[in-house]
Design brief:
5-stranded mixed sheet, two-stranded antiparallel sheet, 16% strand, 199 residues, alpha/beta
Length: 199
């Protein structure tokens, strides 16, 4: 009897974890974040609008307990890319993002963050996928949900963050990182935000 109760609790816990993952990814049962006609273009998808949500203050966790607070990015716009090891569309997108980051370097600052993905799984995933330019930063689902209060998001999600740490644009689903105009498009978006007065 005790064994059955334990097994039931374990199954319920696993079911809850899967449900939480599905609520973020929306990538099951025909409700994929992957666009039916392919990936989404850089523009006008990421055209900045009015500020949304509170400024990002995530405390990201890296290998060996290293940490990065996104509040240290104040003063310079950047791109925040949210993904997860359990998200099929993310797996399809990351190789192109890896190449984009390798090519652009600090010219277009992109911070990739694995949401609700344990660090050991992130490290294995990046190593097996040969994705050396995807920094292994992680963020708990609770911390992410406290910030993203605009309903249930789908991963992958790409956000443009202004110099004050506020989200100015976001796209759910894969982006055209390999498109010829991708670097120039993002450079202009970030440059315009840097030059504009705080909204």
């Amino acid at each position: 009897m005790i064994r059955k109760q334990i097994d039931r609790r374990t199954l319920l816990g696993r079911a809850a974890s899967l449900a939480a993952a599905a609520s973020l990814c929306n990538c099951g049962l025909g409700n994929s974040a992957r666009a039916a006609d392919g990936v989404q273009p850089m523009l006008p998808s990421l055209k900045p609008g009015a500020p949304r949500l509170e400024p990002v203050n995530f405390q990201l966790v890296g290998p060996g307990g290293t940490a990065l607070s996104l509040s240290t990015m104040r003063g310079r716009p950047f791109v925040l890319h949210l993904w997860a090891t359990w998200c099929p569309p993310c797996r399809l997108e990351l190789p192109a993002l890896n190449t984009f980051i390798e090519k652009t370097g600090s010219t277009v600052p992109v911070i990739p963050v694995a949401v609700a993905s344990p660090m050991p799984k992130v490290m294995v995933f990046l190593a097996q996928g040969n994705l050396p330019h995807i920094a292994p930063w992680t963020l708990g689902q609770h911390e992410f949900s406290q910030w993203f209060t605009s309903g249930e998001p789908s991963l992958p999600m790409t956000c443009v963050i202004d110099a004050q740490g506020r989200m100015r644009a976001s796209v759910e689903g894969e982006m055209a990182w390999a498109a010829p105009e991708s670097q120039a498009s993002l450079e202009k978006i970030l440059s315009d935000l840097q030059a504009s007065k705080p909204a």
